[in-house]
Amino acid sequence: MAFYSLANDLYPDSGAAHNQMAVIATTDGNHLDAVYHFYRAITTKEPHPLAHGNLELEFKKITTAWEKKRSHPKTDSLTTLIWWFVLLHAKFYEGVEFSTHEELENEVLSRLALLLKEQSFSETLEKFVLINIAAESLAGQRIRGR
Question: What is the pTM of this model?
Answer without folding.
Answer: 0.90
